[in-house]
């Protein structure tokens, strides 16, 4: 059966990439492509909605879709743990809709995050440095937040990481006790380094995205999972079995936050050129 896909944010970098993949992939058909001037009602009739907009827009897209019984794949960052939890409560028990939230579609990035969560049990000194192109509007990145949360989960019995002098602004933003440092630079697409410090040694887990091709396989895997999704699933690692013993996401982390109420019936203006990969 062919899955009808509506892409919200179709004029952005990720939107164009996903549109091409849908056109090229058997079993999918582009139902609608929505830009900043499109009413959200244009997605009606789709089986799956893909949201690749902006953090300030994503909530209204997801709300409209789930209210109309459409499953959603979210590729937009900015979904905090609180928002995820609220969304999970909202759609709990419903069989006609589901939401898959993917901070990063790159398989390599997901593997790097999983390995970082494994190492978190062995080192107390851990920090994250994430670098993205200058146009990325939010920080820290969704990938960095996801990585820090999984590190925190892995250390549930060990306690928070060692983060001295964290009252100083230059020490980064703490997420699940992990200091996260965000760089926004020209000449970069996406890179993340998770640095572990121990007695007489350091270990760095790095992932560097060189082109948008890195996202293609993960997008198709996430689309396939979204077709039958129920409830809220966070992370490509919850869709693909990496076989690395990644700590499972607890129920509270598998749902999304309801931002403040809004009455959007169309998409606010989106600068397509400002859309940035995770």
Automatic annotation (TrEMBL):
Residues 4-105 form the Dihydrodipicolinate reductase N-terminal domain. InterPro entries: DapB_C, DapB_N, DapB_N_CS, DHDPR_bac, NAD(P)-bd_dom_sf. Gene3D superfamilies: Dihydrodipicolinate Reductase, domain 2, NAD(P)-binding Rossmann-like Domain. It catalyses: (S)-2,3,4,5-tetrahydrodipicolinate + NADP(+) + H2O = (2S,4S)-4-hydroxy-2,3,4,5-tetrahydrodipicolinate + NADPH + H(+); (S)-2,3,4,5-tetrahydrodipicolinate + NAD(+) + H2O = (2S,4S)-4-hydroxy-2,3,4,5-tetrahydrodipicolinate + NADH + H(+). Residues 111-236 form the Dihydrodipicolinate reductase C-terminal domain. Its EC number is 1.17.1.8. GO terms for molecular function: 4-hydroxy-tetrahydrodipicolinate reductase. CDD domains: DHDPR_N. Pfam families: DapB_C, DapB_N. Keywords: Amino-acid biosynthesis, Cytoplasm, Diaminopimelate biosynthesis, Lysine biosynthesis, NAD, NADP, Oxidoreductase. Pathway: Amino-acid biosynthesis; L-lysine biosynthesis via DAP pathway; (S)-tetrahydrodipicolinate from L-aspartate: step 4/4. Coiled coil: none annotated. Belongs to the DapB family. This is 4-hydroxy-tetrahydrodipicolinate reductase.
